[in-house]
Structures are given as structure tokens and as C-alpha cells.
Amino acid sequence: MTMTDATPPAAAPRARARFHTLRVAEVRPLTPTAIEVTFAVPDDLADAYDYAAGQYVALRARVDGEELRRSYSLCRPPARGSLSVGIKRDPDGRFSSWAHEGLRPGDEIDVMSPQGTFVSKASTSTGHVVAIAAGSGITPIMALATDVLERSADARMTIVYANRSSTDVMFVDELADLKDRYPSRLTLHHVLSREQRAAPVFSGRIDEERLRLILSRLLVPASVDEWFLCGPFALVELCREVLADVGVARERVRFELFTAGEGDAPAQTGGARPVRVRDDQPARRIDFTLDGQSASVETPVAANETILAAALRVRPDVPFACAGGVCGTCRARVIEGSVSMTENYALEPDEIERGYVLTCQSHPTSDAVRVDYDG
């Protein structure tokens, strides 16, 4: 789920994402349409689930006989032995509806090891961090805010949080508690599109005019060390464009999307479907390495399969989560051949320069392609 304009310094190589079965310890209502789900992490898996504030996990479950996967940001600062995610129900979301209706303490579900680069660049912070979030976009911000404020007595955090109404505000009590703990270092602005606030700037949808008003009256962009944007595609894109226009350096902005456009992330099964390779049709060969083992698959040119979809036909354990170009779980490095990548909301510019692609969005454009998931 993580997309970023900035590259963390001395970033460690991404560990191979793996699923483990975890037990649900608690399901807690947050709003009429949102819940917090906490998983118990046994001691023998604690290292595998060590994470940084701002990262996410993918959940996997069988719903009505079909495997579904969905990525959710971790909403609590790192704590050994447990991890928590916030799940907001989407009326058209099969996974979120299933979780709200059927997930109970004691249930077991497959949880992927934490991934993502939506994290603070600095190991310690004495500067000013600003987060702009909407709806469930507050989820990773909760972990980030707590982490930033606890890590340094000199750090400051400003959160601009947009919702339709006060009843839609996730983690309302936790945000209030955080404000009480750090009254001089945490500034919290609630923007409600369907409720009248005392200040007009906080009443209405965050469009370009309102965002520029917020930046001119409430924030001094030049004084901000890091920006974190999290929410729907339209809001995040608006914020990125306006911040760039007012002179905010690209490397200071980090962003995360919960969807790559309208509605749920597409094709949660990775787009895998029955494909028949016929001798009388042109095909391309895909070779890939995963966990040190090599595999090959042919894909008809006419099928226009992604590398991920083709690979899943011969290796069901190929890693993926959203299949929408958002999370980056399916990242692999192109060793030979060429591909065309449709969307990219996860890879950083330096990764693309080094040959990495999102296999859920990449289509072979040469007769043979070789990619490495381990690289």
C-alpha cells in the first residue's frame, strides 16, 4: 500500500513477504463502519512481524470458496507480541464486508509479514511532521504520530484529518488522548464535509481552494520537514500537486493510497485465470526465480497476461496482495527482456532505474522475459 516520493536513507533490502496463520485476539468497533482487528503474534514469529510505524500487512482468507487478499496499514506503534489493523467497511468490498460480519476473537487468518516504505526517514526527529489524511487514511498516521512524538521531545506533528461527519472519525478517542499527552507538540485539525464547523476552513471537502487556504493560514510549508499523505487517489494527487506548486521538495513528501482509483483494489486474486497456450498462436516465455527456485511459463500474446497472472499458473505462492499496483508486494527485478508497466503507485524512482517492476502491472514486450523475485 505504500507509495512514496522519497527514498529512505540506507534502506535495507526488502525481506521476502510471507504469510503465517495468526489468531485474532480482539475485534473492536471504531465507528459504525470501521473496526480495529488485533492479532496475537507468537514468540517464534515475533521477529518476522517486527515492523516500522507506517507499514502494512496483507490479509488472506477464503470467502465463499474464493481466495481474497487485502492490504491494511498497521495502526499501532510497534509492540512485540501483537499487531493491529483498522478495517473500514466498503459497501462493495467483499473482504471488508466479510471481516465486519464474520471475524471474531479466536478466529485464525493468514497475515503476511509487514511491508512498505511509508515510514519516517529519520531515526530520530526534532522537526515538524505534517500528515494529511482522509477516512481510513488515518490508520498508518496513528502509528506514525505516536512514534514521532514518543521518539523525540522536540518533534512536532500536525494532522489534518478529513471525514464526512464526526461519526465517521476513526480512532477519535485515541487522537484525543494523543492530543492530551502532547498538547504543545500535536496540532489536530478535523475537516468535515457534511457538518458545519466553527471555522469555515474546516467545513467542506478538501478541494484545491481549501487546501491552499489551509497551507497559507495554518501551516508554513517551508517549516515542515516531512509530509505524509494518505487517503483516496484524488486527494493524494491534489495534495502532491499543490505542495509541489508551493515549493515543497519532492523528497520531503511521502504518500500512500488505499485504492488506485475508484472503489476497491482490482482483481484481488491477482488476475489469474485459465489460459490455454496453443501451438498456432504467438506466445512469450516468462522465466522467474522465487525462493531460489526457477520456473517457466508461456503466455499467449493475445491473452495480454501480466507477469504475475502467468506466474501464478505455475507457482501459486508467488507473492502479491492488492494486484492493483498499490502495495508493491509483487515487486521483482527484470533480468532479461522488456516489459510494459501499466500503473505504479509503489515503486520509487531509484527502484525503477535498477530494473524493478510491479509484476501485477507488467506485461512482457519481448519474446522472452526473466524476472527475479528474490533480487
Overview in brief:
This protein is an alpha/beta fold. It contains seven helices and 19 strands. Residues 1-13 and 260-272 have low confidence and may be disordered.
Commentary on this structure:
With 375 residues, the chain is an alpha/beta fold. It folds into 3 domains: 2-112, Elongation Factor Tu (Ef-tu), domain 3; 128-257, Nucleotide-binding domain of ferredoxin-NADP reductase (FNR) module (Rossmann fold), CATH 3.40.50; 283-372, Ubiquitin-like (UB roll) (Roll). 18% of the residues lie in helices and 32% in strands. The protein has a 6-stranded mixed β-sheet, with helices on both faces. The protein has a 6-stranded antiparallel β-sheet with strand order 5-4-7-2-3-6, covered by helices on one side. A hairpin with a 2-residue loop joins strand 2 and strand 3 (34-40). The longest helix has 14 residues, at 138-151. The model is unreliable at 1-13 and 260-272 (pLDDT under 50).
Q: How do the helices and strands follow one another from N- to C-terminus?
A: EEEEEEHEEHEHEHEHEEEHEEHEEE
* Widest beta sheet: strand line-up: 1-12-11-8-9-10
* Span of the ends, CA to CA: 20 Å
- Poorly predicted runs are 1-13, 260-272
Q: How many domains comprise the coordinates?
A: 3
From the coordinates shown, what is the CATH architecture of the largest domain? 3-Layer(aba) Sandwich
What name does the CATH topology of the largest domain carry?
Rossmann fold
List the helices and strands and how they pair.
Layout: E1 2-4, E2 19-31, E3 34-40, E4 56-63, E5 66-73, E6 82-88, H1 94-102, E7 108-112, E8 128-134, H2 138-151, E9 156-163, H3 172-181, E10 186-192, H4 208-217, E11 226-231, H5 233-245, E12 253-257, E13 283-290, E14 293-300, H6 307-312, E15 331-336, E16 339-341, H7 349-353, E17 356-358, E18 362-364, E19 368-372
Parallel strand pairs: 8-9, 8-11, 9-10, 11-12, 13-19
Antiparallel strand pairs: 1-12, 2-3, 2-7, 3-6, 4-5, 4-7, 13-14, 15-17, 15-19, 16-18
